């Protein structure tokens, strides 16, 4: 392995958006003529979250164990598809890294490091030991680049603020995925950060088409992709089914119980990243409160309705505002009294102007950072 660029990100989470953004950043760097590897870093904290069974005997833990047992075959099939996608599509380092000391050894390989995208700077997801490597804390003199990382929630940041400020000051190039992240970087470090697009929006639609696994599905359908607290989203999806007279298909993350979505005409619980893309690509309409559910709907030029999620509303709003799509977000089901959002298709010729401008700015930032 020759000296090249190393990417540190959430590539091994059992999460569609995490894996697909890792693929998209890698592909974008390849397209710009650079060789890169995704560093196969798996902290113990992330490893525990990815285990099929976590023997937590609290009430919620027992519910999760029972849910896993009931849906075991689907869960195993999904995990197999995630593994296949990583093995075939992600250019991973041959070595698996599990500690900061091991990560420091990678400096013999890489001349530059890129951290991001996804919520790699969200202090609520990781403890401090696992958190700081995503700020390239193990890197000394090599170039350090952030590409569209997200802080997600900043509730815990004050307890880490001094360390984060120090780490940010060592970066050669800084960017963030949301406006709020750019402002936070500025307030912590006094430095300006570029507002960069999520990697999934750096790729052309044709780049995503070739990795999508097309599903066996009805000719037309509405796709529901829920993240946390989907009550309003479910109401909206059912309203859309009633209005358009189309079947409603729910594609679920593994932490949701399928029984909570029995109102759907079909439930998908075993998809991998390629299958997830296929369901989005083939859908007529999409309902989601997921950031990547929204970004990939845009990438495939789909009509969609977005709702707020306690964890991602700021992130989604930032993206929708940037592309002039604020009207596609409905804060509660009562907003459906206005039929505009249902019967007016998104003008992707118009959206494309804003998207191309944001994409060009983001790619130019990457070019300059890797030069």
How does this structure look, described?
This protein has 371 residues and is an alpha/beta fold. It has two domains: 4-203 and 359-370, 3-Layer(aba) Sandwich (Rossmann fold); 209-356, 3-Layer(aba) Sandwich (Rossmann fold), CATH 3.40.50. It has 15 helices and 13 strands. It has helices spanning 16-31, 44-50, 59-70, 72-89, 100-105, 128-131, 157-168, 179-189, 205-209, 231-244, 273-282, 291-299, 313-322, 340-343, 348-370; strands at 4-8, 36-41, 92-97, 110-115, 143-146, 175-176, 194-195, 222-225, 248-251, 266-268, 285-288, 303-307, 329-330. The protein has a six-stranded parallel sheet, sandwiched between helices. The chain has a five-stranded parallel sheet with strand order 3-2-1-4-5. The radius of gyration is 20 Å and the shape is globular.
Helix coverage percent: 40-55%
Give the distance, in angstroms, between the N- and C-terminal Cα atoms.
20 Å
Q: Give the CATH topology of the largest domain.
A: Rossmann fold
Low-confidence stretches: none
* Overall SS class: alpha/beta
How big a fraction of the residues is strand? 5-15%
Cα-atom radius of gyration: 20 Å
How many structural domains in the coordinates? 2
Q: Note the run of SSEs as H and E.
A: EHEHHHEHEHEHEHEHEHEEHEHEHEHH
Largest sheet: 6 strands, parallel
Number of helices in the DSSP assignment: 15
Shape: globular
Instruction: Using the 3D structure, state the CATH architecture of the largest domain.
Output: 3-Layer(aba) Sandwich
Cross-sheet strand order for the largest sheet: 10-9-8-11-12-13
Mean pLDDT: 89
Report the CATH C-level class of the largest domain: Alpha Beta
Report the count of strand segments: 13
